[in-house]
Amino acid sequence: MLLTGNGKLFSPGPEGVFIENGAVVTDGDVIKETGEYPALFAKYPDAEFVDAHGGLIMPGFINAHTHIYSALARGLPVKGYSPRNFYEVLEGMWWKLDRLLTHEDIAASAYAALTDCIKQGVTTVFDHHAGYFAVPGSLFVIARVAEILGIRSCLCFEVSDRNGEEKCLEAISENSDFITYTEKQNDDMTKAMFGLHASFTLSDKTLERCVLARPERTGYHIHVSEGIEDVIDSFKRYGKSPVRRLIDFGISGEKTIYAHCVNANAADLRLIAEAGCVVVNCPQSNMGNAVGCAPVLDMFGSGVLVGLGTDAFTNDMPESMRAMLTSQRHNTRRPGAAFNEAAAMLLQNNAAAAGRFFSKPLGTLTPGAAADIIVADLKPFTPLDLDTVNGHLMFGMSGLNCLTTIVNGRLLMKDRELVGVDEEEMRAKILEISAKLWSRF
Predict the structure, then answer these.
(1) For 5, phi and psi rounded to 5 degrees?
(2) For the chain, counts of helices (H) and of strands (E)
(3) Could you give the percent of the chain with pLDDT greater than 70?
(4) Cβ contacts of residue 110 below 8 Å, gap of 6+?
(5) How far is Cα 112 from Cα 407, in angstroms, rounded to an integer?
């Protein structure tokens, strides 16, 4: 049993809870009770005490779309790489990288990315993996690292025709095998989806195979209308938008994630809302890849559940929330727009989306919810309470404010020190592996 207290406690939600001198008690993998710190400290004298040092106690962050496999590319110099469009970004960097990844590289990427998540208060990740050099068993490699480090994950492999039929079939099998494995395990720490790259790299034959291979108990995770190339290709070859094409194939539903949807139009948004799919916005990645600004405010207006991801541009969720706010205001030229939407995406919608996959509630500090808790070193010079907390998170916090991270009742980081992990030894090993990868690249 853990008692995390001596700080301000915030639990998001329609009602919202804020306790000036609060504490949260966990019993195993669930939250047992929240309340005033002195009272709970007296009530549970035998609980292990985790000192918040006056910081902000809140639920761990959820990243609804990322790519762990890209972690070893940070800082990678590529001679002559000067992409002129999104396709050249993919072909010149990411597809080239994923064709080289061994299981050792994938494990090292997972250690690097997930350690960074722990240090920035991300307790759950929805990962979209690509690694066409070594497809079979690759999701199991990531799952094992997530298990060792203690991160909650939902994994898939992006099926694509871009590397030929044999590799495509391997990717389909990897998704199916991992979905079957997670169903048998029935562990609320590891879930699976069926991954697809994007419409423009998927033939009708491949989509048919994916529909036949996916068990009904999970959904798809796919890039949709990220670059205009995806839209042009779909209209040119199939006479319809990527959204319409996917929905016609049955690649939709409440357990399906459409990542990006930057170039989705009003008709697409109505279709997505009717199908009940989750859309995940990744604002920094969209700006970095120069694909445009997603119509997030229109998505809200259409009744689409919109979550927030990073596309591996960062693991810092408050930073991504801030980027969503500023990009929407810049794009719409409305300085009063997007504040409530940005906060809702990170603090409520990601949890609602995760609730479609994980059994225990996430993103809340209510009794019975998953014991995923972070403590942020947030001690502002202006009032911090239920009315102002979203503003403080938006403008005064980054992931690096995280002091302590607890996932599933397990203490992973305490006072900025990883628990049970020799970080220097791990970093040295990852550096050795990444240097070899870079030389091959």
Answers:
(1) -155, -170
(2) 17, 18
(3) 100
(4) 68, 71, 141, 142, 145, 146
(5) 18
